[in-house]
Amino acid sequence: MKPVIFAFPAHAGLPQSIVARVGGTAGTLFLHRFPDGESYVRLDTPVEGREAVFVCSLDNPDAKLLQLLFAAAAAKDLGATRVGIVVPYLAYMRQDVRFKPGEAITSVSVGKLVSGVADWLVTVDPHLHRHATLDAVYSIPSTVVPAAPAISAWIAASVARPLLVGPDGESAQWVARVAAAANAPWIVLDKSRHGDRDVEVSAPQVDRYRDRTPVLVDDIVSTAHTMIAAVGRLREAGLAAPICIGVHALFAANAYDELKAAGAARIVTCNTVPHASNGIDVNAAVAEAVAGMIRA
Ligand code: R5P
Fold first, then answer.
1. Containing domain of residue 117, as a range?
2. Residue to probe by mutation, ligand 1, list 99, 219, 233, 248, most atoms within 8 Å of CB
3. Are residues 238 and 291 part of one domain?
4. Whole-model pTM?
5. Do residues 221 and 249 make contact, with C-beta atoms less than 8 angstroms apart?
6. Fewest CB within 10 A of the end CB: N or C in the chain?
7. What's the number of domains the chain is made of?
8. Radius of gyration of the CA atoms of the chain, in A
9. Which residues contact 116 (CB under 8 A, 6 or more apart)?
10. Who lines ligand 1 at CB under 6 A?
11. Per-residue confidence of the chain (296 residues) as pLDDT tens digits?
12. By C-alpha distance, which of 109, 106, 140 is closest to 123?
């Protein structure tokens, strides 16, 4: 039997792409938050004997994660043959080590919770830094969809003489892939973070790229202070106003407006988290990955 695809709110586009690709049915999911803050979750489409797939990006994760876990557990309980989770943005991956004594390593905790209710996972560019792969934290099979091909294609079509810039060493993995496909040079800056909104970057020897358009690429834009510091440093070095590309558009509080005000020439993100800046479509690649996980 074909799968049932359930979409959490605000996911216009992706569930339809998945249904179109795998030929399943769009399910109806009813979610309610009681006045005391508890969640009510109901699957209004039968799942018995079928594979159930839940599409839920985990921006604002503390509000969404429990509902996702409840929905997945309910599907199992109601007789779904398998349960798949499609999380275009996978939260909590940055806390991948105990930086200070006593800290919770939340990437591992979330990995255990999700692996306890689901049979497989599809996501886009999770923040893999000190965890080498998702298998280090998720005990279920997973597919990671890289955003680099779609970002490279966008740059090739939209930017003349780009210089790809990663704001920190961690971004080298994305920037190198994007630059190779866009056939452009790339550099990474040095970043020091002293607090949530206190970020410094240094940009040694970038003045030789003054004839190029800098394109900053990072996986997550949260407070945007990483991007803001990088924009400032590149402008100080005499480069043109940078284009800022983020994979996951978290934009906490007024981060988007602050980044615009800091001098970004343009801000473009992938559609893993719904946001006005979404301009790079990764839905087809995600749907393809889902097709590879489903057992018809
Ligand atoms: C860091 O490890 C990530 O790759 C991003 O650079 C970071 O999450 C961006 O955060 P913010 O926008 O708050 O500076």
1. 4-146+282-295
2. 219
3. no
4. 0.96
5. yes
6. C
7. 2
8. 20
9. none
10. 94, 127, 167-168, 170-171, 199, 218-226
11. 899 999 999 777 999 999 999 999 999 999 999 999 999 999 999 999 999 999 999 999 999 999 999 999 999 999 999 999 999 999 999 999 999 999 999 999 999 999 999 999 999 999 999 999 999 999 999 999 999 999 999 999 999 999 999 999 888 988 999 999 999 999 999 999 999 999 999 988 898 999 999 999 999 999 999 999 999 999 999 999 999 999 999 999 999 999 999 999 999 999 999 999 999 999 999 999 999 999 96
12. 140
> Which of 125, 199, 218, 272 has most ligand 1 atoms within 8 Å of its beta carbon, as the pocket-test mutant?
218
Q: Which two tokens stand for residue 165?
A: 């810039």
- Distance from the CA of 220 to the center of ligand 1, in angstroms? 5
Q: What is the CATH number of the domain that holds 45?
A: 3.40.50.2020
Phi-psi region of 23 (alpha: psi -120 to 50; beta: other; left: phi over 0): left
